[in-house]
Amino acid sequence: MSAEHKQKILIIDDSELNRAILADMLDDEYEIIEAENGLQGVGILQQRSAEISLVLLDIVMPEMDGFGVLEVMSENHWIEDIPVIMISAESGSSHIERAYELGVTDFISRPFDALIVHRRVVNTIMLYAKQKRLVGMVADQIYETEQRSSLLIDILSHIVEFRNGESGLHVLNVRTLTELMLNHLVQKTDRYPLSPSDISMICTASALHDIGKISIDEKILNKPGRFTPEEFEIMKTHSMIGAEMLENLPIHQDAPLVKVAYDICRWHHERWDGRGYPDGLKGDEIPISAQIVALADVYDALTSKRCYKDSFSHEKAVQMILDGQCGAFNPLLIECLQELAPDLPAHLNGSNTFVQRNRREMRNVAREIHRHEELTASERTLQLLEHERMKYSFFADMSKEIQFEYTVSPPMVTLSHWGAEHLGLDEIIMDPLHQPDAQGIIDPADLHSFADILRTTSPDLPVIKYDCKLNYKGNWRWTQIVARAIWSSDEPPRYTGAIGKAIDIHDSRMKLASLERQASHDALTGLLNHAYAKKRILERIKSRPNALYALAIFDLDHFKSANDTYGHSFGDQVLVHLAEKLRQSIRGGDIAARAGGDEFLIFLEYKDEVEAVISRIFQSLGGQFEQFPLSVSMGVALTETVSSEYDDLFHAADAALYTVKRGGRGHYRFYDDAMRETLSVISPIEDGETPQK
């Protein structure tokens, strides 16, 4: 192995002979760096700590002994990443005990046994490498779960803020302010012993502070002016309503996140002097979580434009809070606000991005790992992962949406509890592309198409939308799947799965389809109307300009007598009957429409069988409806004899129809040049109008 690819071992020992012996044992596999004393060793660590895989450290040395080196390594957190094996002839229990207290991984006594030294060095380096991989895996998992949490918070922000016309940034701004205030508070005083995990949980729960507003009448919520006393009393109920919503959750009532969210919902309008609502709590009777969210809520409300006011400047908002115009707050929090004030606008302008929020959360997680020295690595991992799982489950269940996570390896879909229940599936589906249960709720073609589209995304463009039908316990409904593909941080990045949600769009899609049908179809007969038929015909001609087409126009003979004799209701029945006969007589690719009144048109593509097709359709339209005999007159224009311009075709077919009517009705004719003069007596037809005869 070349020197640049070898792992590096730092030997700190004042004995040149000892360094030489150790180097001779290890330099075949490792690159050896030597330091003559503790000070020199610390200097090397300051410059190259990221490169060093192991330190072999003597105890007794001039200038700085081994214990001094360990203390410096602990202060700089090097000891957490670099294993240390103590080497010394001092084998007294007190020396060994102190060394282990300071973070030493192993102890080797002199004189050296080459085999023992080699094996302990190899084992120690391998152990730390495994731990680093574990931490990396945990960090990746936490990062992905934090991405999901942030996504869900964003969604929830819009849900909470939508009804009162706010942008959704209010929730995010309150979260950011809460985080800044909490971190500053714990640095400033020990009065509120909050861990990084506590801070993270409070910040997450802050998103729910106004969830009770969902129940407030929109007329009050969006009122542009001042509330009446009665309206204000109704508005004040949102804090209790939000708390009751959380308290009455069917699951997760006892989860720490829910309890913190309950405190914030109920008491974020309490004030330090007891003049708040709903319970009139004073001082530290108010949970610190609610105190901080209250201050963050007031600041953002002041600096944001609302339906009832313009926004105040940052400086004005801070001064109003300091002057007590928005109620009394904890003096410690007021001090924190004053100290943070100069940098607050910059933090708010730049802190709401997805990536930045995740980075902050990752820093909190890292601090949490360092804090719990007494826990084993696996215990810390489980604790953190359970915390993230709890947050994800809570938001997934609160949102009442079909949410999912897909992993490529192993191939697995995890559904939110509500989503699984709604679809009648298990929450975990292994190998979904080949699982009958999964294929029972979505067409296999759609399932594979969706999976393929996800793979075509990139880290820069990871979000897709896909419309398909899902089976909701026997009811197939149109659904929009919104998903974000997850890509690894490797070079090149790897597609590892996706997170997303399924939105029921069936009703809106059906309503749109109904509106489209109303706009494109004749209300009486259900055939296309003339305007939409013309659009379809133009599209067909444009797509296949070299094909041969026929346009036929026909109307009912003596239809006026049917209306006069039997009434207009009977006349409508005749038209509906004729439309149905027309529908049954045309081919799948043909276009049929009601042009207006008792006039209809047919557009079809042909090769050499056009007369036979026209004759068959014409014959099918005859017969009788109750006591009224059905007879039609029809004119046909072909692109062989007329240009493929729609208006030219229509006018030519109309001329042929005009000729048939002059000749006695009840038959059909194809347009020819002999009818050219007829065109001059026929007015041009506009969309939706009946031609004048």
Distance between the termini: 97 Å
Total count of domains: 4
How many helices? The count is 26
How many whole angstroms does the radius of gyration measure?
39 Å
CATH class of the largest domain: Mainly Alpha
Question: What is the 3D shape?
Answer: elongated
Determine the mean pLDDT.
82
**Unreliable stretches covering 5 or more consecutive residues:** 352-363, 365-382, 680-693
Remind me, CATH topology of the largest domain?
Hypothetical protein af1432
CATH architecture assignment of the largest domain: Orthogonal Bundle
Strand order across the largest sheet: 8-7-6-11-10-9
Name its key features.
693 residues, alpha/beta, Rossmann fold, Hypothetical protein af1432, Beta-Lactamase, 6-stranded antiparallel beta sheet, 6-stranded mixed beta sheet, 16% strand, disordered C terminus
Report on this model:
Helix 5 (114-162) runs parallel beside helix 17. This protein has 693 residues and is α/β, with parallel strands linked by helices. The termini are far apart. A 6-stranded antiparallel β-sheet has the order 8-7-6-11-10-9, sandwiched between helices. A 6-stranded mixed β-sheet has the order 12-14-15-13-18-19, sandwiched between helices. It has 4 domains: 3-112, Rossmann fold; 136-383, Orthogonal Bundle (Hypothetical protein af1432), CATH 1.10.3210; 402-505, 2-Layer Sandwich (Beta-Lactamase); 521-681, Alpha-Beta Plaits (2-Layer Sandwich). The protein contains 26 helices and 19 strands.
